[in-house]
Amino acid sequence: MGNKTFSFGDIRIREVYGRYYLYSLEKIEGNKMK
């Protein structure tokens, strides 16, 4: 049960970091375009 809770939390954290990472890449690419 503990492992399942940890796995679920890990997936959520990865999802949030993944979105933030993509957002950062878009901002960096946008700055390069200017």
Automatic annotation (TrEMBL):
Domain ORF D-335-like: 6-31
Highest taxon listed in the record's lineage: Archaea
InterPro entries (UniProt xref): ORF_D-335
Protein name according to UniProt: ORF D-335-like domain-containing protein
Organism: Sulfolobus acidocaldarius N8
